[in-house]
Amino acid sequence: MEKQGRVFFFSLTVTVLLFSLLSSTANGHNITRILASHPSLSTFNHYLTLTHLAAEINRRQTITVLALDNSAMSSLLDKHLSIGTLKNVLSLHVLVDYFGAKKLHQITNGTTLVSSMFQATGTAAGTAGYVNITNLKGGKVGFASEDNDGLHSFYVKSVQEIPYNISILEISSALSSAEAEAPTAAPSQINIINIMSKQGCKSFADLLRPSKALPTFQDSVDGGLTVFCPTDTAVSGFMPKYKNLTDAQKISVLLYHGVPVYQSLQMLKSNNGVMNTLATEGANKFDFTVQNDGEDVKLETKVDTASIVGTLIDQDPFVAYKISKVLMPRELFKGIQEEESDAPAESPKASKKGKKKKASPAADAPADGPESDSEDQKAADDNAADSNAARFGMLFFSLIIANLVL
Question: Which residues belong to any copy of the FAS1 domain (predicted)?
């Protein structure tokens, strides 16, 4: 009887532990909630939300946030930066690697360069989006952007650490960076055609440029616009169908690739379901369904399904994604089955914002920063999954051994 009691008690304990593990795995981290319990970081917390960085931080794993107290944020806000520029500056304070207080003081060779989320935007030139972390005398740790003239910000304390998932460290002052603080283009100044042409969507841009659909895209930017731009390979395979459409139908197809509201990747992942487009009008629904597929986001039209394979630009209130197929609205392509010619472009890679006019072959390829960051993110997610699997395995093994012993 005593033995049965011990077995029951142990099994109950393991069940509780397993439930806790499942809950923690499912919930992940929420930067807004974590910082809410630290009043001295309230301004920093507010601007993470305002710039939509909070959602990006919550989406990632293996990440370090360099938090600024209200006084440091006040000094930063005194520069009167636009919200777009402020987002760049704050994204420099989000590192795509994990640094707890212990690791921070045990850096190999005493110094290291770490990629930030600013590097991932494609706005940073060269390595301007990297942060230098250096161990100094007396246990001090200094921080500086790669394009800065020295270490002017220092480690203050650890705010919260969830090992190898997220670490929030308070630093003494904002990281200074000429690149991050450079003025960002106003939404109405964004050249949609140039951005597409430089990011592997030149064929779609060439269709849009002479079309009567272009003014609708341009006029929608200020109020919020999300564009889904098919790759050059996808457009090439779609051209036989496109050429058979009337002028009005061609306009509808192009408008079908725009959504009249800003939708970051995290917003798309959090708001699956039917989405209206610029082509939606009256009885003509011209909508499609956003659906998560693991870590990927798919767009389903009931005629074909496209995947988001990269981001061309994300500058609230405008964001543009690269997708693997041309979206075919059921209103125009009822009954048409997916064909091999509409296959996705080669390997999905993160894209980047480019410069002006004529794209060279190299310009269509993503730059190193975002691609490596995307790979870092995938590795972080894989490592987290492996870690969770290992914990479940150990828990299951312990349960078997304990029951055999008891």
Answer: 28-175, 188-327
